Every structure is written in structure tokens, then in C-alpha cells.
User: Which sequence fits this backbone?
């Protein structure tokens, strides 16, 4: 019961920002005395802070204001993408306090090398965060592939060329020493992008399919505000949904997968831009803005293929919304018309509103943002669990 | 709390069959005194019965045996299919006590006529059930179309040619008078077939996609032992998942939907059997058994199309199993090889076992069986709710 009440108080502070004890009591239905006692426990765990006696000009808002701590416990997000590496540190407010991203051509590169470079990126982020008084208490690594969460292994990441890489299983081998006592997890980038949309997006519908597209195309299904992972955690492989059963052979070995029609490599080739370096999405954007007909056609075809695959998803899952996330969100202006046209033509046996498909405002920042926020959401949903873990750690340190 | 305990006792009796009060106490973790009091309440509501003092030859099994009642409250299932109508009555044990089915060419027929004939079928089933001491306390109608459950309306049933038919909204207009005080619901046949698989099937995996195929092709997604209905109740429209984006125009207006490749009409046409009367599935089975090459090819093509559409579903949803139900389960011998081959070729980025696709043993009986069992499962899961409803009814009758 106390555990639930601690979560209620944390939740109220997360949702409403700085508040007096009386306001928290009102919002949670707890007595003021109970709130006082719960807040003492949260403060002792470093989760809340007292903002001091505010000069109260407003009736009914006396006393000191409480807030979630902007220092102390934080979430560390790390990202391994096909073309870049990233790290971010998120505080209890859900605010990004550190964001580091570097270009890195990871396709076909040895996992050990990639992880060593990611460790440097993490160390830079940690240093910056420490200067702000923030100390990550959980690390989540976003990867573009299938993950066995229990063992912390990347089972397959075809666009990296990885197979059975134990990223979170032996973090001590590659993460900075200061993170050694902090739990590490690995998750699929499409899943984390969808969670970022749920937690940071502007619309945040409770049921949606989130498409995360660039080199690979993944999706994540959010149902009732929760990520749906499937029986073995492999749900959301939109990139390998067939769109032309007799089409070209995909990296996965099957024919006519969506990635063969809408993946970045196909689009670049169709656009006459195969082999160009730099930021491919920016190149496509610039060319489309300049009216390059080949680029516009390539994007239209990719949009139509995405729409065809998504019409299958809508027919099967009946989501209330679709979100185009990942780097492709930046190409929404050219992808969305074809996607919406296919959806309108193919989802006919039920009402369907073309506005139910929207680009994400988070775009390619989604997966890293989600990775950093997982730890924060867990603390807010169950502060007692965090406090217990913290105590064990303190005991271990002092012994 | 008492409400939960009543459900615990009902659940134990449903799962283990006749038991002594001591056995129920052991299985539920309740005291024997509590079980005694709960059982009195269940018996008063007509849900359990005392089998009398059994001559106990076994140690530790003294006293009278309790059981769910085989008389009294029952579930009435009704079915409107494209080629037949059906009614069944299920007792608290989940046993089919009455099953009535008649051939009826319902395609394009006026809803009023169909409902009038269904009422006659229901009346016949009720009469037979009453002779066995069974009285339906809930009616569920299975239909091959999209349903708005809240209003009890069939929004679209393209294979019947129906649109906005208020089946459960005004049941007094068509159901027998004896059912007037009993709640009526309408649900999609694919959903009810999946629930029948969950409740009556031999394998009963907790997460599966159930395909229900004949004239139309539907699917239902079961997650964690519960039916997943989507944001607005329209999940599972497998028949309109595109398998060839530029294929022939479907009844729904889109191109290349699965139904255009695997629906009964297409298969019959490809098999050279267009326009034959009688039981189409039996005809196809007989011809396939006789080695008719055109029929075998038509079934193989249908199986491959089903496999292509299902590979999209597996990539998106990661179910632990797939079940081929409906009338097509009877064609499993010829459909399954093509389905499994396509799934094996197209689900490659994760482990996939071809044995995870199995035909349903319930086959075309599924939807009606599910419709009859919904009421029973609700009573077992919440007997207090049923008892309260029953009391209101008794009061109304006597006033």
C-alpha cells in the first residue's frame, strides 16, 4: 500500500510539476499527514526536493513547494544506429540534460569496435551530466535489430551485420567503470522510439502503431499506453512484411519485403543518389525541396509501399493512430501523401481518417530519447523499488 | 473480496469437475468454513449442485461432492453464416446440450427474413434445452461482418450484403418471446471462433492468431488468453490485408486483398467448380481426395496467399501459434503445406516453427460454439454479477 502511495505522489509531481503538500494531498486523495511522511521517504532517496518557502501571493497555496529533483538520479540512454552513435542523460522531470551524437559508419563494423566507441560517447555524456549533479541509475541501449531482452543479447541486426552480440550481458567489458554497478538493458530502436512518442510526443494517443524508418524499417505497437512486444518480444517487424510477394530478394532472404521498396538504400538508388555520403535524409530533403523529379518519384513510391504495408497493420490491429517516426519523419512532406492514399484505398471496410497518420515531431531523436527515459518512467512508477535498490548500493559501497 | 472468492470457487469447480468442499478449500486457499458459505450462495443462485454423499472409498475425500449445475442457467449461441443458420445451448460445464443447424442461402437475403428464420432455429433449440431443464440467461449472435458491439449493430457484412443492421439493438422484434428478458449481443464470427479455440480447443495456446476462413476471411488475435479487439473493435480483418497490391478489385473496393486469392468463391472458380451447389467445402474435399489436379492447384494457391498474409501478421504481432479455423480447417491437408512454405520463406528474422501453424479441431463449429460459451465464461468469471442480475429478474417477475 505504501509502495503504491509513493508512486501516487511521484506521479502527481511528475504530471503537475512543483506543488505544495496540500496540492499533492488533494490530487492523490491522501491525507496531508500521509503525504508528509511519503515525501520524507522520497526526499531521503533523493527523488524529491524542497523548493523552499515561496513568497505566497495566492490564496490556498501556502507552505513550501515540492518538486521532483533536478539533480541526482538520472537515466542514461545509448544508441547504436547504422550511421551514428549517441548518448543522452535525462533527469527525473523527463528533461534532456545531455545529448551527444557522433557520426559513425557502423554497417559491417566489428561489434567490439562499435561498443568501444559507444563507451567513449557514454563517458563524455556522463562527465557532462556529473557536472550538473546528475548520476545515471539505469542504462538502456537502443539497437536496430532483434533483441533477447532477458539475456541482453542482440540476436540479429541485419543492417549492422550483427548476430548474437551480448551487448547488455557483459557490459563491464565495454562500459565506463562508473557505470559498472548500474543495470544495463538493450532494446529495439523502434520500441524505444514508440515509447518516446508515448512519453514525449505532442499527441500521445493510447493506441498506435509507430513506424521507425531509415536503413531498416521497424514498427512498434502501443496498446493502452503500453508497448506490445508479442509472445517472444519480436513484434513490430514491419520491414519484413511482404508488399510484393514476388518482388526482389531482401537481406532477410524473403522476397518483396517492405524494406526492399521503402528502405533508405532502395530510395537512394531509385533517386539516383546511390553511394552519396553524409546525411542521406538531408540530401533527400534538399533534392526534394529543389524539385528533383527522380527523388520525388522515389519518395512517392516508398510512401506508397509504406502505406500498403501499414494498411495490413491497420486491418489486423485497428489502431487509433499511426505515427511516422525515425529519420523518415523528416521526409513526411513527400512520404505522407502516398502513404495516406494507399491507406485510404485499402482500409475501406471500417471508418478510416487519413489524419490518423501523422509524422513524429521527435523523428530520429526518438529511440535515444526513449532509451534515456525508460529508467525515469520506472522510478516514477515504482519509487520504492528504486529506493530499495539504492539502499543496497549504499550498503555495498560503505562495506 | 467476497465477489472474488465466489469466482475462485466457480473457477475451481469448472477446472477440476466435481469436488468435495475440502478439495475446493485446498485449491482456492480459502478456509473450509468460507467455502461452505460461498457454496451456499452459489447454490441459491442455481450455479452449483450437491451430488449427494458419495460412497467414499478414497482417503481424504469424505463428504458430499459439489459440482457446477448441469441444469438451470445456460448460454444460447446463434449464428448467421453465409450458407447456414445455427443455434446451440451450452451448460455451465461448457458442454453442448443442444445443436441445431440448417442450410440457408443468406447471401443478399433481406436481414428481416434471415432473422425471422434464425428465430425459428432459436425456438427449436430453446424447446429442446427446456426439456433438459436448461434456461439460457444470455444470447450471443455470431455474424460474418464488422460489428459495433455497443449498439449491437452489424455495420458491414459484405458477404451477406448487409449494412447497418441492428441485430442486437432491437431483439424483441425477432427473437422468441421467452428470450425477451435475456441480454443479447452480437459479435464477429472470427472473434467467437478464436474464443472457442481458447476455451474448447485441444492446444489452447495463450497467444495466437486464429484464422477463420470460408466465404470471407477473418482473423482474431488472442493475447494472454484474451481477445484483442483493437481501438474500435475492428481488429483481425485479415481478409483485406493486401497480398498483391495491384491484384484484382475486391468487394471492399481495394485491390489484391487476401479474399481475392483465398476466398471460397475464388478457389471454386480456379478449381473449375464455380456455381456448384451444396456444401462447397465438402465438394472441394471430395475432389481433392480424388486427385483432381485443378482443385489441388487452386487449394495450393489459396494456401500460399494465406501464408503470405499470415507472414505479415507474424512479423507484426509475434504470436506463439497460428490456428486455421472455420470451414477451411477441413481443407488443412491441402492448404497447410503452402501456408507453411510461405511462412518459412517469409518469417526469417526470428525463429519460426512450422508446427506453430495448426488446423483447428473445431473447424466450422467454432463460431457457434464460442457464441454459446461466452455467457458461461462470464458467469464463471463473475458469478456474483450473474446472481445480482438473476435477483433483479426474479423481483421483476414477482411484482
Assistant:
Amino acid at each position: 500500500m505504501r509502495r503504491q502511495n509513493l508512486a501516487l505522489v511521484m506521479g502527481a509531481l511528475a504530471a503537475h510539476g512543483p506543488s505544495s503538500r496540500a496540492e499533492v494531498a488533494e490530487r492523490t486523495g491522501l491525507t496531508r499527514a500521509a503525504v508528509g511522511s511519503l515525501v520524507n521517504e522520497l526526499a531521503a532517496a533523493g527523488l524529491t526536493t524542497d523548493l523552499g518557502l515561496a513568497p505566497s501571493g495566492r490564496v490556498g497555496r501556502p507552505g513550501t513547494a515540492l518538486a521532483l529533483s533536478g539533480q541526482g538520479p538520472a537515466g542514461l540512454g545509448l544508441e547504436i544506429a547504422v550511421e551514428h552513435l549517441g548518448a543522452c542523460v535525462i533527469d527525473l522531470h523527463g528533461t534532456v540534460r545531455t545529448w551527444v551524437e557522433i557520426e559513425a559508419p557502423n554497417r559491417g563494423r566489428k561489434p567490439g569496435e562499435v561498443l568501444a566507441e559507444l563507451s567513449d560517447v557514454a563517458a563524455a555524456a556522463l562527465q557532462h551530466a556529473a557536472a550538473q549533479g546528475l548520476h545515471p541509475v539505469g542504462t538502456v541501449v537502443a539497437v536496430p535489430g532483434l533483441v533477447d531482452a532477458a539475456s541482453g543479447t542482440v540476436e540479429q541486426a541485419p543492417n549492422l551485420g550483427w548476430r548474437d552480440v551480448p551487448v547488455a550481458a557483459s557490459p563491464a567489458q565495454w562500459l565506463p567503470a562508473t557505470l559498472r554497478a548500474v543495470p544495463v538493458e538493450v532494446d529495439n530502436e523502434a520500441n524505444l522510439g514508440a515509447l518516446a512518442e508515448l512519453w514525449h510526443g505532442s499527441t500521445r494517443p493510447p493506441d498506435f502503431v509507430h513506424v521507425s524508418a531509415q536503413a531498416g524499417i521497424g514498427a512498434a505497437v502501443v496498446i493502452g499506453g503500453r508497448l506490445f512486444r508479442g509472445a517472444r518480444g519480436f513484434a513490430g517487424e514491419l520491414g519484413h512484411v511482404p508488399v510484393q510477394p514476388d518482388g526482389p530478394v531482401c537481406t532477410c532472404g524473403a522476397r518483396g519485403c517492405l524494406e526492399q521498396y521503402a528502405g533508405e538504400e532502395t530510395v537512394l538508388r531509385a533517386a539516383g543518389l546511390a553511394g552519396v555520403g553524409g546525411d542521406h535524409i538531408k540530401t533527400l530533403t534538399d533534392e526534394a525541396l529543389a524539385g528533383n523529379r527522380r527523388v520525388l518519384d522515389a519518395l512517392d513510391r516508398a510512401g506508397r509501399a509504406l502505406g500498403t504495408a501499414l494498411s495490413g497493420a491497420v486491418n489486423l490491429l485497428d489502431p487509433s493512430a499511426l505515427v511516422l517516426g525515425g529519420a523518415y519523419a523528416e521526409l513526411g512532406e513527400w512520404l505522407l501523401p502516398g502513404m495516406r492514399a494507399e491507406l485510404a484505398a485499402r482500409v475501406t471496410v471500417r471508418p478510416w481518417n487519413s489524419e490518423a497518420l501523422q509524422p513524429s515531431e521527435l523523428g530520429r531523436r526518438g529511440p535515444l530519447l526513449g532509451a534515456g527515459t525508460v529508467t525515469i518512467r520506472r522510478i516514477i512508477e515504482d519509487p520504492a523499488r528504486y529506493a530499495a535498490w539504492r539502499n543496497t548500493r549504499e550498503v555495498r559501497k560503505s562495506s
